[in-house]
Amino acid sequence: MRHRRRYGRRRSFRPLILSLAICGISIAAVAAVWSKSGTIDRSGKFTGPVILAQSEILREIYEQALEEQERKAAADLAEDRETEEEENTGQAQETQREPDTAISIAGEVTDEASAPKLRIVLDPGHGGPGVKDEQELGAIYRDTYEKYLTLEIAQAMREELSGYGNVEVFMTRDTDKALTLKERAAYAEAVGGDLLVSLHLNASAEHNFYGSEVFVSAFEHFHARGAGVGESILKQLTDYGFVSKGVKTRLGSKGADYYGIIRECKSLGIPALIVEHGYMDEDSDWARMNTSESLKALGQRDAAGLAAYFGLEKGRTLSALPELEETIPASPVRPDTTPPEEVWYKKEQRGDGKWMITLHGVERESRVMYYDYSLDGGAVYSKLQLWGTGESVQFPLELTGEEQLVFRVYNNYELRTETPAAGS
Fold first, then answer.
1. Contact (CB, 8 A) for 58 and 16
2. What is the structure's pLDDT at 105?
3. In this structure, which CATH number among 3.40.630.40, 3.40.50.1000, 3.40.50.300, 3.50.50.60 belongs to the domain 112-310?
4. N or C: which end of the chain has fewer CB within 10 A?
5. d(CA 287, CA 279)
6. For 36-68, what is the HEC assignment?
7. What is the DSSP string of 316-352?
8. 335 contacts 251 by C-beta, under 8 angstroms
9. Which segments of the chain have a pLDDT < 70?
10. Cα angle value 402/404/405 (rounded, 5°)
11. Where are the alpha helices (DSSP H) in 146-291?
12. Helices 181-190/260-267 angle, 10° precision
């Protein structure tokens, strides 16, 4: 408790007035108090008792002002201390966060250790020292083994993906070595793979098919993820000039995924897809894979398609990746196992001597993809032609009347329906 000092009656008013001024009490305020308190006695004169009485009033005013000033000073001091503590706490928190504050306003992160990472496993198809083993060599055309081409594509894809943020790339093989499908899937699991992309080139028994296709699992989120990435890669390949045969599934006799790499990865919880870039045994496709430059372009397009699907950005590492909109199928996505239906044709003679052919076909499970025709009853067929988008196509033919016309209509699963041979 603060003790008040009592002043003697002979104390001068000058120090008192000065103290009041220091406390923020003006002379005018003192005068106002003085006037309201009564400054004269009954005779109307200033007398000693009156002056002494007024001095007591002024002293009480002084003491009250001094107490108020001390209270204010104490409050200000407490506020200053609180502010200082808050600032110190904020600085301490800021200092503590400093190693992690790598996120910019644009969402870019400079501390890559804290950024989300996709772990992508590239699987160059085939591989191994064998000279007769088809599993090791892959397709063999034009004095070229598929295993070498897939490795070049994978290496180019890895190099291209390295320019994107938020991704780590692994390869099941980076040399010509043999690996079982189970070993490839086990490697993907060992490195914590989020997705395996198996890279291949195609061939067909009749050497007439062309186009790019992707095979994925038929089940649940494995299908959703594989189909999403596959469609994005196919878009890149069609921009390069390939025809898209679409994303497809294939089931074995027991109802599981047919392709071993997809099946083995699924058993380990890893989505997988097979990219069949094009056909080594077809001229137009081969022209897009017959040099190191073209193989590099394929790998770059595969990378661009994958990056686009996941929202990766070239040269930037993001603090968060975009959320994917994937539709999980409620039941297995089964492949088309039946050929096109309602296949027929008609011909009409034109004024120039040629005949206009109308060829019809319906595909309710997938889509009609190609057609071809024979003029000699099926001994020799034309090159496969792309169908289009409707249920019918029209095209001219020069006919002499001796032909034995046969037409074939294919879906994108390479299943076909053939018309009976008929004279023109």
1. yes
2. 38
3. 3.40.630.40
4. N
5. 10
6. HHCCCCCCCCCCHHHHHHHHHHHHHHHHHHHHH
7. --BSSPPPP-----SS--PPP-S--EEEEEEEEE-TT
8. yes
9. 1-70, 72-111, 424
10. 125
11. 146-161, 181-190, 220-239, 260-267, 283-286
12. 40
Q: What is the pLDDT of residues 161-170, one digit of tens each?
A: 999 999 999 9
Got the DSSP string for 121-148?
EEEES---S-SS-HHHH--EETTEEHHH
Q: Please say whether the dihedral angle defined by the alpha carbons of residues 382, 386, 389 and 394, taken in this order, is positive or negative.
A: negative
**How big is the chain, counted in residues?**
424
pLDDT digits (tens, 9 = 90+) for 346-368: 999 988 878 999 999 999 999 99
Q: Which two tokens stand for residue 357?
A: 């052919």
Residue 135 carries which side chain, given as an amino acid letter? Q
- 417, amino acid identity: T
Give pLDDT tens digits for 173-196.
999 999 999 999 999 999 999 999
Task: For the chain, give every domain's residue range.
Answer: 13-97, 112-310, 341-423
Q: Quick check: 30 and 58 in contact, CB under 8 A? A: yes
The CATH class that applies to domain 341-423 reads mainly beta
Q: Give the tens place of pLDDT for each residue, 1-33.
A: 433 333 333 344 444 444 444 444 444 444 444
Tokens of 356: 């206009």
